[in-house]
Design goal:
With 236 residues, the protein is an alpha/beta fold. The protein has helices spanning 3-20, 39-47, 58-67, 86-92, 102-111, 141-150, 169-187, 204-209, 219-222, 229-235; strands at 29-33, 52-55, 74-77, 95-99, 119-125, 154-161, 195-197, 214-217. The radius of gyration is 17 Å and the shape is globular. The structure holds pyridoxal-5'-phosphate.
Length: 236
């Protein structure tokens, strides 16, 4: 299978899952997660029609963004954010999906350039208490959303979440249902919230069934990431 075949297959799965959930296929946006994947594969996917790409590690991402600057790709930052990295994130990305605390939101807004459109922001939420994952918990979320909403150079677009990994569709559905309930609750309050970013290669069907408007897919598009990719990226 070529990269273009993978894309068509994933697009078909999104369409099928949308139909099953009585939703239109264009209500779900596909973000291609290219972390640890080679630049030429990103190019192939772009040429097959994919325009949105997500990266998790800033230094790796900046190299790719520079190399691919001739393509009008919409870049999303989806990884953990250290406060000393916010300036480059604010300036090089169209979206940041992993804003997990007020301090980060404040810095991103202050460091977005005046000539740039407001940065599209998702609050990352962690509803299931996993200490290995980032994200605001239920108690922290109202204050975080209010801050993102109020900051001048940010637009609050919604929430992103990465629930506990499971291959059990029933558990996937129940976790995503809970996340969607939180999304809906705040959507009533903030009219700019139109994006629920849930679902990856292994659970996007359940996520679409539970209202996902953006799936973040890496492996199903690019193939497996190389062995030891985390160590390699962090060593950079
Ligand atoms: C890596 C990653 C993905 C993609 O995961 P796959 O299982 O390869 O589809 C999605 N979201 C986040 C936040 C990631 O870090």
């Amino acid at each position: 299978m070529t990269i273009a075949d993978n894309l068509h297959q994933v697009q078909q799965q999104i369409e099928d899952a949308s139909k099953m959930a009585s939703r239109t296929a264009n209500s779900v946006t596909l973000l291609a997660v290219s972390k640890a994947q080679e630049i030429n594969k990103i190019e192939q996917l772009y040429q097959a029609g994919q325009k949105l790409f997500g990266e998790s590690y800033l230094s790796e991402a900046l190299g790719k963004i520079a190399a691919l600057r001739d393509y009008p790709i919409e870049w999303h930052f989806i990884g953990p954010i250290q406060s000393n990295k916010t300036r480059e994130i604010a300036q090089h990305f169209a979206w940041v999906q992993s804003v997990d605390r007020v301090k980060i939101a404040t810095r991103l807004s202050a460091q977005r350039m005046p000539n740039q459109a407001p940065l599209n922001v998702l609050a990352q939420v962690n509803l299931f208490g996993e200490s290995s994952k980032k994200g605001a918990n239920r108690e922290q979320l109202p204050e975080l959303l209010a801050a993102i909403h109020e900051l001048d150079n940010l637009t609050l677009r919604g929430i992103m979440s990465l629930p506990p990994a499971t291959t059990d569709p029933a558990q996937q559905n129940s976790q995503f249902r809970e996340i969607n309930a939180v999304f809906k609750q705040f959507q009533n309050q903030y009219s700019t919230m139109d994006t629920l970013s849930i679902g990856m290669s292994g659970d996007m069907i359940a996520a679409i069934n539970q209202g996902s408007t953006m799936v973040r897919v890496g492996t199903a598009l690019f193939g497996e990431r190389p062995p030891n990719w985390k160590e390699r990226i962090k060593a950079n």
